[in-house]
């Protein structure tokens, strides 16, 4: 239960704000606009980042285990000891990963890894009628291999099942060769081998590179391209920004394969994302500074205007601490009301942006984007109110009454 003195401070603070309605309204509007700008920018940039990540690496592996760079024979040997990965003796890796199941199992045991799957890559040619086009062939294993590329989720025709002599085609290839589900074509490799395949499904990954893929069962691709092991082990992690850490942790254990994260392979994208975040934080910082200065100036003027009333209150027994708390409460009220109004204004701005533009991305509305501007506005309001609070605490009732 609140103390009577506490209720008295809230009553006086509220009365001071109501007596100066014009000033109170202006500062509340200022806080509201600042919070709205903060929320809108945060949600906008977060939405843009989510869209960029989804379009670039959402339907791609976040982590690759690749055959290590070739070194001279015996470079890893020392004292006759065999090379080891994670304490196990493995066969020597060359241009392919022979012991791929070990790496798949290791990655799947990591709780940070969402899925891991081997893949066999090849460069082939599709022949249909008189047309011949180059195609990237990926040998995948269900279900993880299909889920890494979101093939099942983004299938536009057919059934995305990996079956013998059945291929899953990217939409761009299907359109160029006018292939539909059930049509047959010839797949040729660089050694002259030919394989008649049927279109089982057509998918649209939303990117030109992804839509130039041909996916087939891994064992069939390995046999067709004479791949003894696998070309790589691909993985996706639960938090895309943790991929580099996962690669570093597992990379310490492996000598025969190298691990590459999407951050390492997309440095320009990572730099762009960091620049966006930095610009957002910079803008929000200056908005908070503006709010703080506005609150401090308005409450400072109020402290001067209310000197006589404060002097009388202190002469009647109001303590210095209680007098200072009156202005802190005013700052809290201004920040709370202004931030709630600003959140509503920010949501309205976001709705208008989504409805009135043809942007390929939306706003990312989450607990962080909703609560952070409110918390910052409240902190700024309370902090700014400490300046007039100190003046109120240092006020001498005798001097105020004597000077009128």
Give a quick summary of the entry.
With 404 residues, the protein is an alpha+beta fold. The chain has 13 helices and twelve strands.
SSE topology:
Elements: H1 4-19, H2 21-58, E1 63-67, E2 84-85, E3 88-89, H3 100-109, E4 113-128, E5 131-140, H4 144-148, E6 155-158, E7 166-170, H5 171-176, E8 184-188, E9 194-203, E10 213-217, H6 218-224, E11 232-237, H7 243-251, E12 257-261, H8 262-265, H9 267-305, H10 307-315, H11 320-356, H12 367-394, H13 397-403
Parallel strand pairs: 5-10, 7-9
Antiparallel strand pairs: 1-11, 1-12, 2-3, 4-5, 4-8, 4-11, 6-9, 7-10, 8-9
Averaged pLDDT, please?
78
Radius of gyration: 33 Å
Q: Give the proportion of residues in helices.
A: 40-55%
Query: What's the number of structural domains?
Result: 2
Instruction: Tell me the overall shape.
Output: elongated
Termini separation comes to 38 Å
Total strands: 12
Structural class: alpha+beta
Strand order of the largest sheet: 4-5-10-7-9-8
Question: Can you give keywords for this protein?
Answer:
six-stranded mixed barrel, 19% strand, 404 residues, 2 domains, 13 helices, alpha+beta, two-stranded antiparallel sheet
Report on this model:
With 404 residues, the chain is α+β, with helices and mostly antiparallel strands. The protein starts with a helix and ends with a helix. It has helices at residues 4-19, 21-58, 100-109, 144-148, 171-176, 218-224, 243-251, 262-265, 267-305, 307-315, 320-356, 367-394, 397-403, and strands spanning 63-67, 84-85, 88-89, 113-128, 131-140, 155-158, 166-170, 184-188, 194-203, 213-217, 232-237, 257-261. α1 (4-19) crosses α11 and α2 packs antiparallel against α12. Helices cover 53% and strands 19% of the residues. The strands form two sheets. Strands 4-5-10-7-9-8 form a six-stranded mixed beta barrel. Strands 2-3 form a two-stranded antiparallel ribbon. The chain is built from 13 helices and twelve strands. It has two domains: 4-55 and 270-403, no CATH class; 69-255, no CATH class.
């Amino acid at each position: 239960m609140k103390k009577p003195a506490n209720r008295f401070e809230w009553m006086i603070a509220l009365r001071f704000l109501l007596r100066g309605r014009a000033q109170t309204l202006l500062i509340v509007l200022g806080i509201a606009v600042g919070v709205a700008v903060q929320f809108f920018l945060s949600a906008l940039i977060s939405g843009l980042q989510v869209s960029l990540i989804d379009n670039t690496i959402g339907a791609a592996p976040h982590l690759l285990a690749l055959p290590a760079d070739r070194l001279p024979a015996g470079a890893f040997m020392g004292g006759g000891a065999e090379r080891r990965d994670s304490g196990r003796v493995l066969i020597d890796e060359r241009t392919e990963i022979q012991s791929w199941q070990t790496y798949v199992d290791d990655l799947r045991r990591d709780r940070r890894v969402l899925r891991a799957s081997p893949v066999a890559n090849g460069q082939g040619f599709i022949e249909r009628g008189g047309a011949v086009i180059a195609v990237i062939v990926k040998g995948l294993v269900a279900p993880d291999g299909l889920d890494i590329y979101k093939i099942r989720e983004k299938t536009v025709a057919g059934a995305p099942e990996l079956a013998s002599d059945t291929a899953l085609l990217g939409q761009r290839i299907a359109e160029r060769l006018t292939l539909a589900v059930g049509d047959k074509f010839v797949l040729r490799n660089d050694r002259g081998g030919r394989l008649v395949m049927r279109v089982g499904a057509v998918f649209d990954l939303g990117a030109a590179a992804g839509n130039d893929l041909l996916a087939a069962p891994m064992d069939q691709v390995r046999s067709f391209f004479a791949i003894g092991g696998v070309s790589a082990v691909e993985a996706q992690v639960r938090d895309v920004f943790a991929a580099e850490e996962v690669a570093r942790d597992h990379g310490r254990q492996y000598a025969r394969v190298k691990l590459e994260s999407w951050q390492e392979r997309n440095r320009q994208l990572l730099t762009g994302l960091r620049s966006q975040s930095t610009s957002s934080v910079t803008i929000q910082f200056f908005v908070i500074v503006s709010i703080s200065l506005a609150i401090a100036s308005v409450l400072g003027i109020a402290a001067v205007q209310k000197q006589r009333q404060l002097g009388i209150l202190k002469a009647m027994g109001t303590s210095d601490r209680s007098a200072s708390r009156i202005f802190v409460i005013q700052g809290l009220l201004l920040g709370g009301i202004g931030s709630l109004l600003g959140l509503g204004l920010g949501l309205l701005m976001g709705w208008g942006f989504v409805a009135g533009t043809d942007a390929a991305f939306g706003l990312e509305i989450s607990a962080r984007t909703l609560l952070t501007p409110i918390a910052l506005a409240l902190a700024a309001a309370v902090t700014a109110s400490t300046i007039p609070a100190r003046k109120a605490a240092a006020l001498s009732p005798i001097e105020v009454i004597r000077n009128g």
